[in-house]
Design a protein that fits this description.
The protein is of the alpha/beta class and 353 residues long. It folds into two domains: 183 residues, Glycogen Phosphorylase B (Rossmann fold, 3-Layer(aba) Sandwich), CATH 3.40.50; 152 residues, Glycogen Phosphorylase B (Rossmann fold, 3-Layer(aba) Sandwich), CATH 3.40.50. The protein contains 14 helices and 13 strands. It is globular and about 60 Å long. Keywords: Glycosyltransferase, Transferase.
Length: 353
């Protein structure tokens, strides 16, 4: 079997990952390769060469001065993105060697063009409904969809009947750590991930906090998070996998503080695989991922102050959790092996005559 994985065209499939979607696609590609399945990937240039996969190339966008000067010119990134996925879908029409196309791109065009290619196209829903994907799926009732959590499936239930396959983490890559005397938060630094809530929780509870991740929203970082940084609350930057694994494993607990309906919460699963217990704000799929003995969830309050107070009260119980039991929970409930097995079974179902 040969599977084509479509990712976002803005970021390569390579560590350090820009976000959970890139991490998911990279790990899925590696898991499929381990099972002897050939993989073709479309993403931004520069995917990890160690994966040993074929990368689909597209022609770069070329616009004349006249086109750029059009008063109705949309953002160039939007034009480039649409042009890229159009080329990719046309390429699949000429690729009989590809058996299944697995769409993780968050772009509408692969969905609406799926009837024009000979391969079945499977779309994983990594987010709540968006104004691009929702109408695309309504126009394509035959689309095959998977949701990363029951929460995401429910959010999409009026649009598409998505099957649930939860994300997973590599238990060998995210091995057990010794713990330590600081807290950790990791992820993209954006308002919806709300690392400032983690900073407020740590300050209220009297703990040091290390924040790891790329600054994806500079305005949010400067206006909301940076004023909270200091000797005890530190942004350590965008770390590679090895450095991040060490930081998480040497932390007393991991804080996960979404301000939106978190689709899954891969950082929580990674932390628990290290034996690091998780204190999470129960939004979206996180309440499915973070359960005792892996961690504890705090219901979001009416405002940030209430959320911080409730989480700070739970923190001593989280830090006291048995790290061996936390890791055992992650191995049983957040396994990458189970995730890959479920996708392979679904691919086989889709290509079966």
């Amino acid at each position: 079997m040969k599977v084509a994985l479509l990712a976002h065209d803005r970021f390569p499939i390579a560590p350090p990952f820009s976000g959970g979607l890139e991490s998911f696609t990279w790990h899925l590609a590696r898991g499929l390769k381990r099972r002897g399945i050939e993989v073709v990937v479309f993403a931004a240039p520069g995917s990890d060469p160690s994966l040993g996969i074929e990368e689909l190339d597209v022609e770069p966008l070329v616009l004349s001065d006249e086109a750029r000067n059009d008063v109705a010119m949309p953002p160039e990134a939007q034009v480039r993105e649409t042009f890229s996925y159009l080329q990719v879908m046309r390429a699949f029409a000429r690729r009989p060697d590809v058996d299944v196309v697995h769409n993780n791109s968050l772009h509408y065009l692969p969905i609406v063009m799926s009837p024009a290619i000979p391969q079945p196209l499977l779309t994983t829903l990594h987010t709540p409904a968006t104004p691009w994907l929702e109408p695309a799926l309504r126009l394509t009732p035959s689309a095959h969809t998977v949701a990363v959590s029951d929460s995401v499936a429910q959010l999409w239930s009026t649009v598409t009947p998505a099957r649930v396959i939860r994300n997973g983490v590599d238990a060998l890559e995210w091995g057990p750590g010794p713990g330590g005397d600081t807290l950790v938060w990791s992820g993209r630094i954006v308002p919806e991930k709300a690392p400032h809530i983690a900073a407020l929780i740590a300050s209220r509870a009297g703990w040091k906090l290390r924040i790891a991740g790329p600054v994806s929203d500079r305005q949010y970082y400067e206006s909301t998070l940076r004023p909270l940084l200091g000797e005890d609350i530190v942004h350590v930057g965008h770390l590679g996998t090895r450095a991040l694994r060490t930081l998480v494993g040497e932390s007393a607990a991991c804080l996960v503080t979404p301000a939106w309906e978190e689709p899954y919460g891969l950082v929580a699963a990674e932390a628990m695989a290290c034996g690091t217990p998780v204190l999470a704000v129960a939004r979206g799929g996180l309440s499915e991922v973070v359960r005792a003995p892996g961690g504890l969830t705090s219901q979001p309050g009416a405002d940030d102050v209430a959320t911080v107070a409730a989480a700070a009260r739970l923190l001593p119980d989280v830090v006291a959790m048995d790290r061996e039991k936390v890791r055992a929970y992650a191995l049983e409930n957040c396994s990458l092996t189970a995730t890959v097995d479920a996708y392979v079974a679904l691919y086989q179902e889709l290509v079966r005559p």
